[in-house]
Specification:
Distance between the termini: 102 Å
Structural class: alpha+beta
Helix content: 25-40%
Number of helices: 6
Radius of gyration: 25 Å
Number of domains: 1
Strand content: 5-15%
Largest sheet: 6 strands, mixed
Order of helices and strands: HEHEEEHHEEHEEH
Length: about 250
């Protein structure tokens, strides 16, 4: 009986190991682009969700003469007013640190508690929403969340008011009062802000980072292209955009 020499058997095993090694390298090389494609799809889907939410908010304003209050963790996706308040005074439970009131807006799909999540889908990925309030314009408190508050405050006063929600291009010099140097400022007149916290939403942002600026509840936000340390998606609607929609709907002046 012919038997293959031990060296031949060893050589065959070596060849097999080499083939497996090459296949592992190829699989790793293919998995990286695949992961990148999945991530890109999630980013694009989250952007679509934010755009849809912005349109829904402006549509709500046109129909109701005001913007909704943010939802809170206990409101099951419905807008949340402060105790004893409602649309007549527009006093929200939380103006700058809440969630999209997706149930109030009639959006879908929603999670089991009534919130809209971005494409990453964890509990921490509920879409965030902030709206200007807590201050008076033209002698009218909370004019954007009060029923017909823009009409009461008048378009002139709404347009001339110096500060609404602030969006900065970097958080390096940002604080509760603004963006620091004027070159860092994207706008000081955002009526509302929508935000996805991206793939690292479950993680606590580093103190002082751009991402931490977006969850500190001071009405100042950061928006720029993704970097290694920043993957938030931030969009907004300006006060003039809101006013234009209200005028077209006959809700102002």
């Amino acid at each position: 009986m012919n038997r293959r020499p031990a060296c031949a058997r060893a050589f065959t095993l070596l060849e097999l190991m080499l083939v497996l090694f090459i296949l592992a390298i190829l699989a790793a090389g293919l998995s990286m682009p695949l992961a990148a494609q999945v991530s890109l799809r999630r980013v694009e889907e989250s952007k679509r969700q934010l755009d849809e939410a912005r349109d829904a908010l402006l549509g709500f304003a046109a129909a109701n003469g005001r913007l909704p209050c943010p939802a809170t963790g206990e409101s099951r996706g419905n807008e949340s007013f402060a105790p004893g308040s409602d649309a007549r005074d527009g006093l929200c439970a939380a103006f700058f640190d809440g969630f999209l009131p997706a149930a109030t807006l009639g959006l879908s799909p929603l999670d089991a508690e009534g919130f809209a999540r971005d494409a990453w889908g964890t509990n921490a990925n509920r879409i965030r929403y902030a709206v200007f309030g807590g201050r008076a314009v033209g002698g009218i408190a909370n004019p954007l969340t009060r029923a017909n508050g823009v009409r009461q405050a008048t378009l002139d006063e709404i347009g001339a008011a110096p500060g609404y929600l602030v969006i900065c291009s970097t958080g390096a010099s940002a604080d509760a009062s603004g963006c620091g140097p004027a070159a860092n400022q994207l706008t000081r007149k955002a009526a509302f802000v929508l935000m996805s916290l991206g793939p690292n939403a479950p993680d606590i942002p580093l103190r002082g980072s751009d991402e931490s600026r977006n969850v500190d509840g001071d009405g100042v936000f950061v928006a720029h292209e993704p970097t290694r340390d920043f993957d938030d998606l931030v969009i907004w609607a300006g006060v003039n955009q809101l006013a234009s929609r209200l005028v077209a709907a006959g809700r102002a002046p």
